[in-house]
Design a protein that fits this description.
Shape of chain B: globular
Order of helices and strands of chain A: HHHHHHHH
Largest interface: A-B, 32 and 28 residues
Distance between the termini of chain A: 28 Å
Strand content of chain A: under 5%
Radius of gyration of chain A: 18 Å
Structural class of chain B: mainly alpha
Largest sheet of chain A: none
Number of helices of chain B: 8
Protein name (chain A): ABC transporter permease
Number of domains of chain B: 1
Radius of gyration of chain B: 21 Å
Chains: A mainly alpha, B mainly alpha, C mainly alpha
Transmembrane segments (chain A): 24-44, 56-77, 101-124, 130-151, 163-181, 201-222
Number of strands of chain B: 0
Helix content of chain B: over 70%
Distance between the termini of chain B: 66 Å
GO cellular component, one term (chain A): plasma membrane
Number of helices of chain A: 8
Membrane topology (chain A): Multi-pass membrane protein
Shape of chain A: globular
Helix content of chain A: over 70%
GO molecular function, one term (chain A): heme transmembrane transporter activity
Oligomer: heterotrimer
Chain lengths: 224, 224, 56
């Protein structure tokens, strides 16, 4: 047990190190989300607080969705086949997928918090229950990372990973996105928290299903 | 026109033809009376079994994908694809019939209903599965990776189809606080037709699938 | 055109919307039929291949 935790942390360290060495990619992602927010702001030509809450919320999550797909798509594509083979001889596939999911969660958290602050800065912040909204961001980040990591693994094996990534991930992510949209809308309207428990439970259940399946299915994926 | 007259009219037919076949009496005979649905409640025998059949076929497809991952036999993968194919056929037919029925009872061919949208997303998921299969040349690789995606897609499809619609308002029975059919819409007379119809549609789906599987096997044998 | 659609709609609504059921049945049967025809053409192609093989 202790051994596997040690290996897991080593793998995590490797992910962060790799990202740090390719800082331009990380900076690119950060710029991507800031740019997307700004483009939306300019396209709507909106003064602060002029968007209706529902548009405000949906727009934010759509931006996050595209950022997530772009950010997570490269988690398998960026590593060369030879290097992947090398990692696979060192660690078990379960540990690799877990470390990737954890790393992507952290990445998504950073991206979504940055996105949220920039978004709230330029478009105004109508959120009435900020802690619940942040919890939603957290749940969303875990869910996006968990479901998209396996899809990215699948897409990276095919001929045209970029298109396939989008085609495969949009329908897969949708139930999660709908639930998260609902919770965040509740938080936005400042509804009583007991209204959202049901949805939070479902998001947690979906996260659990997706992580378990990634854990179970990834060994079959990397063998090829 | 009262129910009794209506029934007589339908059983005897417009020109006084006597339908005395058992099935036609069931089909055109007694039904519980519905305010807006009127006679179109009989669509329950044709529209709903398509969905039940589709879900059963998809479950079978996922089971064969698991079987493929365990055994590595290409035959299992072939069965999984054909089950998914037939399920897509059932799904498309279900969409078409549902859209027609909705047009005459809910007033719109595609009302913004969570169940419709969930199913549309589910169809996208499985169309993406077919696209994924198309993007590999190597047989073993295609089989393994698409099996992984198939299992993953089914695991997301289940909450999408069973949980998401129940949380939001829906026109369909059994969702968003609406009573499930059976409470008001169906009585025992209708169940006598409905359950056999479900079993029959499912078995027909299995039979169609079996034909395509046998065809593929012959083709595979010929290619060798 | 408009009149045609309304009259078609009216026809389908007659007799307690039983014609909606008829069209639904027709759609299901036609859908299966097209699938079967496609399956049949695949069988036909396979048969031609087998014929060619047996001739050689």
């Amino acid at each position: 047990m202790a051994e596997s935790v040690r290996q897991l942390s080593a793998l995590m360290r490797k992910e962060f190190l790799l990202e740090w060495r390719q800082r331009y990619a990380l900076n690119g992602m950060l710029l991507y989300i800031v740019g997307a927010v700004f483009v939306c702001y300019l396209s709507f030509n909106a003064r602060r607080g002029q968007l209706t809450p529902i548009v405000w919320n949906t727009l934010f999550w759509i931006i996050l969705l595209f950022t997530a797909i772009n950010a997570i798509a490269k988690s398998f594509v960026q590593e060369r086949a030879g290097r992947q083979l090398y990692y696979y001889t060192l660690a078990s596939p379960e540990q690799i997928i877990l470390s990737k999911i954890l790393y992507n969660t952290v990445l998504m958290l950073a991206l979504s918090f940055l996105g949220f602050s920039v978004y709230a800065f330029v478009l105004g912040n109508p959120v009435q229950d900020v802690p619940l909204y942040i919890l939603t961001l957290l749940l969303g980040a875990i869910g996006f990372a968990a479901s998209l990591t396996l899809v990215s693994g699948i897409a990276s094996k095919a001929e045209n990973p970029a298109t396939l990534m989008a085609v495969l991930s949009f329908p897969i992510i949708l139930p999660l996105l709908l639930m998260v949209l609902k919770i965040s809308k509740n938080a936005l309207d400042g509804l009583d928290r007991s209204v959202s428990w049901n949805e939070i439970g479902i998001v947690l259940a979906i996260d659990a299903i997706v992580i378990t399946l990634s854990w179970l299915l990834f060994p079959f994926l990397w063998r090829s | 026109m009262s129910a009794l007259q209506n029934e007589k009219y339908l059983v005897e037919g417009p020109s006084g033809l006597n339908f005395d076949l058992c099935y036609s009496k069931r089909l055109f005979g007694y039904c519980s009376r519905q305010p807006i649905l009127n006679e179109s409640i009989r669509n329950v025998y044709f529209h709903v079994p398509l969905w039940f059949g589709m879900i059963t076929l998809l479950l079978t497809s996922a089971i064969f994908s698991i079987k493929y991952l365990r055994s590595g036999k290409l035959g299992d993968d072939l069965v999984a694809v054909e089950f998914a194919n037939t399920a897509i056929l059932f799904g498309l037919l279900g969409c078409a019939t549902g859209s027609l029925w909705a047009n005459f009872t809910w007033g719109e061919p595609w009302p913004n209903d969570p169940k419709l949208n969930s199913v549309a997303v589910g169809m996208l998921m499985y169309l993406a599965y077919l696209i994924l299969r198309g993007s590999f040349d190597d047989e073993q690789r295609r089989a393994r990776i698409s099996a992984v995606y198939n299992i993953f897609a089914f695991a997301v499809f289940v909450p999408l189809i069973f949980i998401v619609p129940r949380l939001t308002d829906s026109l369909h029975p059994g969702n968003g606080g609406n009573p499930a059919f059976g409470k008001y819409d169906m009585d025992n007379n209708m169940r006598v037709v409905f359950y056999p119809a479900v079993i029959g549609f499912t078995l027909l789906g299995v039979w169609i699938t079996e034909l395509s599987i046998r065809l593929r096997r012959v083709k595979a044998a010929l290619d060798d | 055109m408009d009149q045609l659609t309304t009259s078609l709609t009216e026809t389908l609504r007659q007799d307690g919307k039983i014609w909606v059921v008829v069209v639904v049945i027709a759609i299901v049967l036609l859908g299966w039929l097209t699938y079967f025809l496609r399956l049949g053409s695949r069988v036909g192609r396979l048969k031609r291949r087998i014929d060619e093989l047996s001739q050689n």
